[in-house]
Amino acid sequence: MHKLFPSVLALALFAACSAHAATPTPAAAPDVARDPAAAWDHFLANADGSKGIFDAYNVMDDVGYSDNEVDADACRTHAAAVRGAVERVPVSIALHRTAMLCADATGDQATAERETAAVAALAKLALSQTGESRSGRPARVLRPVDARAVVVTAGLSGLYAYYPEWRIYRYMPIVVAAWDEDRKVERHLSFDFLDATTAILRNPEAKYPFLRTSVAKSLLDVTRDANHPEATDAVAWREARETADPSARRDIARRGATAGGVMSARFWLLLCERENAPERCADGFVDTLLPYAEKNYGYQTMLLAWAYANGVGVDQDAAVADKLLDRADAHWSNMGASVAYLQLWYDLHDEPLPAALAARLARAEAAGNENATMMRLRAMLADNETAALTDKDIAFLERRSQNGRGDGFAMLADWAKAKKDDAAHARWLKQAAEAGDPDAQASEAFRIAYAADGPHDEAAGLRMFEEAAHGGSSFAGRMLSYKAQAANDGAAAERWLLDGVINAEDRFAAADLALLYDRKMPGASADGDAAALYKALEIDGQAAARRLLAVGFMRDDSTPKDIVRARALLESDAKQGDHDSEALLGTSLLNGRLGPVDEAEGTRWAERALAGNSDAITADYGYWLFYKKATDASRAKAVEVWHKGVRNKDEAAANNLAWAYCTTQVDGFRDGKAGMQIVAEMGAIEDLNWGYVDTVAACRAASGDFAGAVELQKKVVDQWQKIIAGYANASADIVKQSREVQERLALYEAKKIYIEPLDSQME
Fold it and tell me: Which N-terminal stretch is annotated as signal sequence (predicted)?
């Protein structure tokens, strides 16, 4: 999507080159040979990427560095540059290795011993951080060449490399497939240089995740231009994903695969297996893979096995496929080829594994492949979210190796939530957030900042939202953007949305950004192209994003307010049977948000949404029937609609029904006992937001429990006081609502119920 928005990309690239913040005078750096972890901490805290850090690596070419060799004469010529490079980047194992080889080549024994110790320490640290679990955290390096240097130092031989994730999160893992001669297997070790690179840029824009994405893409372009096959692969894969024409996608993927790229080849295969595959899609696929399969490269051999198993570009031959996959498994540690093969299968199918593939998964798990165990558990919980997990399964998901980024804890949190084990859910969600899972961090941030009983610690919550946004949560970015918009900070509001648009392809972020540009918020880019975003969303967006756009067009502060466009957006999806669009269209027509009230048409769409069990209809449609149409028949219908929402666990519908039962002045309708029965369906008091607690208090009073009503209403008043305190100039509506909750408290203290004037709901 982002190709439509050149101004957004220009802003990102400008930020990457903008002025750097001043860095403090550093203390003495720890000895990297003695404490490499402390040396890394010191480097990240003090290094300034604008001061030749990355240029230091150029000396490797100057001295002819090649894993285990350098040119001795060149080392003598560039001796000062080699020393300077190591001093500038003391955490680079590649530069220390260059210095070590140069010292050895020129007979400088003392320097060779010192650099050997540094190389060994950095390699040991990196190897302790990396592994073959896809749920682990990648080892920290500063450049891809450092990852290869770790591999070589460990006595392994680098075969090929690849970037397994198209989307850029906090990390951009590069996996090095390396041959372990002692074990006679191919190992796949994961490294990351993005987090460290971003940290030392000292750029004010680094506060926002879009800069991380911009830096990652720039680094890929640079390394692709330097003919690094893994970068060529990554760029081709990304370009193929972003290209609409299937034939062009195939051609781009073929380009990456021909350069030795495994992810491009994988994408090419998936493209040819899908229904809209271009004609003769797989022509050349097998020939492209063969040179690498002949070298026994595990990934390409696995892809070739798939081609034979499924007749992709070659006659189908199950026997040849099995032999190729067995050969790849023998080469790839712990049957890694089978696990990669099974992931391909899951990407194309939504059903249980066939018996033969299930047997391969079991053998891979028995061989100690942790990715196989994780795959089994993911599939099991996807099929049945409350499936029984054994103590062994739980212990596995709690392992450090499964929580480099919080994956295992997040799975357990989801499982506990499905089983309605609130205590376990809260515990595992907190652990997932602490381990870096961005969705868990966003959930925890929301809880911390906007707890159920009112604001708790908004500053701490916002800090965690920032962590979540950098981890890849576009929801967190949107929340931060809303906060910036409330402060009238258009620059920050825009920047928090950019990564969701550019990197995550989040239609909601794109809709928010379009509306921000449309309203011309001060501080946002003056040339922000709302029209391009609108066009992309209207043509290619999801129904939920188009609903968001429609709401924006209906707002009084939209520039311009465009109810014709809003209605067209909603009708386009409603006519296709999207029930939530039917709901919004119906209630908007009934409430006059799309022009004059159209009761007949609004009711028609609302009833269609109701028949379709839309979660978005029962609360609002019932409200309109009870308070706006307000006839005896419509009120009876409202109760019916609200009860349907209660059965469907719609808390808003339950709240509206309980409020009507407990506060209405309609003769013969008020029923505190019935209201308390509905309140019981809303959940535990401590889990309800303050507005719902206000309803519970009203129902307690209506049922005669004035002491209970006073107890709860005091909490509501306390939260409103906190809300008021958070505004420099609270709006008249906020002040009015604050006064009303205090007036209700006074009534309950006087043992009186609250009866709401009907005209107050008509406003």
Answer: 1-21
Domain shared by 752 and 603, yes or no: no
The β-bridge relationship of strands 185-192 and 139-140 is parallel
Cβ distance 293 to 304 under 8 Å?
A: yes
Q: What is the pTM of this model?
A: 0.80
Q: Are 266 and 240 in contact (CB under 8 A)?
A: no
For residues 21 and 204, what is the distance between their CA atoms, to the nearest angstrom? 7
Same domain, yes or no: 178 and 248? yes
Q: Are residue 151 and residue 202 in the same domain, yes or no?
A: yes
Q: Are the CB atoms for 324 and 301 separated by under 8 Å?
A: yes
Structural domain boundaries, residue 712: 652-763
Q: What's residue 730's pLDDT?
A: 63
Does 596 lie in the same domain as 685?
no
Distance CA 63, CA 265 (A): 35
Do residues 350 and 197 touch, judged by C-beta distance below 8 A? no
Q: How far apart are alpha carbons 259 and 268 in whole angstroms?
A: 13
475 has a pLDDT exceeding 50: yes
If one counts the domains in the chain, the total is: 3
Instruction: State the pLDDT confidence band at 7, using cuts at 50, 70 and 90.
Output: very low
Q: Which long-range contacts (CB under 8 A, 24 or more apart) does 18-23 make?
A: 18/203, 18/204, 18/205, 19/204, 20/48, 20/49, 20/50, 20/201, 20/202, 20/203, 21/202, 21/203, 21/204, 22/202, 23/47, 23/48, 23/202
Same domain, 286 and 173: yes
Domain contains 207: yes
Q: How far apart are CA 444 and CA 452, in angstroms?
A: 12
3-state secondary structure 139-160: EECCCHHHHHHHHHHCCCEEEE
**Domain contains 25:** no
Which of 320, 350, 380 is the endpoint of a domain?
Answer: 350
Compute the distance between CA of residue 551 and CA of residue 514 in angstroms, rounded to an integer.
Answer: 12
C-alpha to C-alpha distance for 82 and 233, rounded to whole angstroms: 31
Quick check: is 326 in a domain?
Answer: yes
| Residues 152 and 251 occupy one common structural domain | yes
Two tokens, residue 631? 């006839």
Cβ(236)–Cβ(255) under 8 Å? yes
Q: How far apart, in whole angstroms, are the C-alpha atoms of residue 544 and residue 613?
A: 16
CA angle, corner 82, sides to 78 and 88, nearest 5?
140
Residue with tokens 């269209």: 585
Last residue of a domain, one of 291, 321, 350: 350
CA dihedral 111, 67, 135, 252 (to 10 degrees): 140
Residues 116 and 233 in one domain: yes
Classify burial at 28, counting beta carbons within 10 Å of its beta carbon; exposed 0-12, middle 13-18, buried 19 or more: exposed
Token pair 């749920």 is at which residue?
135
Which runs of consecutive H residues, i.e. helices, occur in 47-132?
Answer: 58-62, 72-77, 79-88, 93-105, 109-129
At CA 302, angle to CA 298 and CA 304, rounded to 5? 120
- Three-point CA angle 565, 617, 713, nearest 5°: 115
Q: Is there a contact between 68 and 119 (Cβ–Cβ < 8 Å)?
A: no
Q: Across the chain, what does the average pLDDT equal?
A: 90
Query: Model confidence at 504, in pLDDT bands (50, 70, 90)?
Result: confident
- pLDDT, tens only, 382-420: 999 999 999 999 999 999 999 999 999 999 999 999 998
- H or E segment at 451? strand 450-451
Which residue from 209, 177, 178, 181 is spatially nearest to 195, judged by alpha carbons?
A: 209
174 beta partners? 191
